[in-house]
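Quick start: what a row looks like.
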Amino acid sequence: KPVDVAVVVTIGTLLPTSATCPMSAMLQEDAAEAVRRVCARETEIAVDMDWDTPWSADRLSPDLRERFGW
């Protein structure tokens, strides 16, 4: 008897620290791979970049701000 497997799409959005981030493709691939490791094989994963939202150090945790001296 055939078994239908539903494909689940997981979408994540990254916010780059620079509008010209040269690492964006690598960040997307790394994020997708990290999610893929904990999802079923059938899961389709899409990671988008949000180029419209400005990034600021306010988005960092207090620990990271202290680590970077901000």
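That is the whole record. Residues 24-36 form the longest helix (13 residues). The beta strands are 9-14, 44-49.
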